[in-house]
Specification:
The chain has 365 residues and is of the alpha/beta class. The chain has helices at 17-29, 44-47, 58-61, 98-107, 119-130, 155-176, 191-200, 214-226, 265-275, 298-317, 336-339, 351-358; strands at 3-9, 34-39, 53-55, 83-86, 92-95, 110-117, 135-139, 179-184, 204-206, 232-237, 249-251, 260-262, 282-286, 322-327, 330-335. It is built from 12 helices and 15 strands. Strand 6 (110-117), helix 5 and strand 7 (135-139) form a beta-alpha-beta unit.
């Protein structure tokens, strides 16, 4: 009887997920005694009744490394520790089904689990490991907010999308003599915004790590206009806040979903600039889920493939409770507990920040 490995992709989707799946399957096929299954929509597949599992063969994963998204689906709602259950009165409550999950893994003769996901997904991985689950983590997030790895796959592709947006906004801003504000993702970290601002050449970049002052942004705009340039580009991360201000978000009441949904900072900033007396016409662009979609670039395809191969090597070593990570130039294994212990904020004293300032990019402080 072949040994069984289960793959799950959880949280938000991003370019490169399929490349990881493909790498795991191709590496497992070389051992000849492994069978790889995919759990549809994260751990939902194995917790559903009936279970929704698919066999992942070399034929099924052929060529998927160039595709965005994930062929086995994903979700950022619920999970084994917060499974939504509808009550008789129509209300919804959350129950812990982690013990049920472990029983189902045993029933399916699954000897190893590889969980591909971001901070939330790897927190689930750690909790399952503590309950005795033979699990390995693979970091995935466009936000690059896991501190245990230099980069997560999907991030560089998201930066490419954001940079391309800056490039395109420059031409229309110049033509109409406008200030264009580009809002990008990143949750509580400014990695996407900062990389896109430097690569695209924006005049202002606002990130969560550095609260902004409207007066500082106005100074940067006025300096730009006074120099003879009739336009300016502002890149703002969705988690950016003004000094003594809060993030812009809406509360989410969907069962099992993250409690808040970030977004709307571009519109707030636009209103703040107008209230401060900005006379240049302003337009806002919210890039949104375009950053999550499309084909992964070559960097992310390679990194995702490296992660997939190393994840299976950890399975062979039975090095449970670890996550693969990129620490240039190596792919290494780090304990899951270490991987989720510290959020990866942009260091305000880093070379990247110094580069932005050296280029004359205003960070709003």
């Amino acid at each position: 009887m072949k040994k069984r490995l289960l793959i799950a992709t959880g949280g938000g989707d991003c370019p490169g997920l399929n490349a990881v799946i493909r790498a795991i399957v191709k590496r497992a096929a070389q051992e000849h005694d492994w069978e790889v299954l995919g759990s549809i929509d994260a751990f939902n597949g194995i917790l559903m009744e009936p279970m929704h599992l698919v066999e992942l063969t070399e034929e099924k994963v052929a060529g998927i490394h160039v595709q965005g998204g994930t062929i086995i689906g994903t979700t950022n709602k619920g999970g084994p520790f917060a499974w939504p259950v509808k009550n008789a009165d129509g209300s919804v409550s959350e129950v812990d089904r982690s013990d049920d999950l472990l029983k189902r893994l045993k029933y399916q003769n699954i000897e190893a689990v590889i969980n591909i996901g971001g901070e939330g997904s790897q927190t689930i991985s750690q909790k399952l490991y503590e309950k005795g689950c033979p699990i390995i983590g693979v970091p995935k997030t466009i936000d690059n907010d896991l501190s245990a790895t230099d980069f997560t796959f999907g991030f560089q592709t998201a930066v490419d999308v954001a940079t391309d947006a800056v490039d395109k906004l420059v031409t229309t801003a110049a033509s109409h003599h406008r200030i264009l504000i580009l809002e990008v993702m990143g949750r509580y970290a400014g990695w996407i915004a900062l990389h896109a601002a430097i690569a695209g050449g924006s005049e202002v970049c606002l990130i969560p790590e550095i609260p902004y002052k409207i007066s500082s942004i106005m100074d940067a705009i006025n300096k730009r206009i006074d120099s003879g340039k009739g336009f300016a580009i502002i890149v703002i991360a969705e988690g950016a806040t003004p000094v003594d201000g809060d993030m812009v978000f809406e509360n989410v009441t969907d069962p099992g979903a993250m409690p808040i949904h970030l977004g709307g900072v571009a519109l707030r900033l636009s209103a703040q600039l107008k209230a401060a007396g900005c006379e240049v016409e302003i337009r806002e662009t919210i890039l949104g889920h375009l950053q999550r979609g499309g084909r992964p670039n070559s960097f992310d395809r390679i990194l995702a493939s490296q992660f997939g191969i190393e994840a299976f090597e950890l399975v062979l070593k039975q090095q449970w409770g670890h996550m693969v990570a990129y620490r240039h130039p190596d792919i290494v294994a780090v304990p899951l507990l270490e991987a989720i212990s510290k959020y990866n904020y942009v260091d305000v004293d880093s070379n990247l920040i110094k580069t932005a300032r050296g280029l004359g990019i205003s960070l709003g402080d």
